[in-house]
Amino acid sequence: MSSEVKVNELPKCSFCNEKARYDFATRIGPWAFACERHYLQWRAYADLGTGQGQRLVLADQSN
User: Fold this and answer.
1) In what order do the strands lie in the sheet with 4-7?
2) What contacts 29, CB < 8 A, 6 or more positions away?
3) Tens digits of per-residue pLDDT, 18-48?
4) 9 with 61: CB under 8 angstroms?
5) Of 21, 29, 47, 59, whose CA is between 20 and 30 Å from 40?
């Protein structure tokens, strides 16, 4: 599994009203969508990947 996943629309951060850039395992247990700030605050792992989390990228954006 890749550390990036393409989405048609960015969901709302689970912790605030910002657009989420990550889908990840939190250090408090459940998975969440998060903006950059909350991802850094609540991530369970330092890296992204299988079982850890993915960076959300809009499908119409090129790398």
Assistant:
1) 4-7, 53-58, 22-25, 31-34
2) none
3) 999 999 999 999 999 999 999 999 999 999 9
4) no
5) 59
| Joined tokens for residue 3 | 């550390």
Residue corresponding to tokens 């550390």: 3
- d(Cα 47, Cα 16) in Å, to the nearest integer? 22
Map tokens 């605030």 to a residue: 16
A 10 A CB-CB count for 11 gives 14
53 torsion bin: left (phi>0), alpha (psi -120 to 50), beta (else): left
Question: CA 46 from chain center: how many Å?
Answer: 13
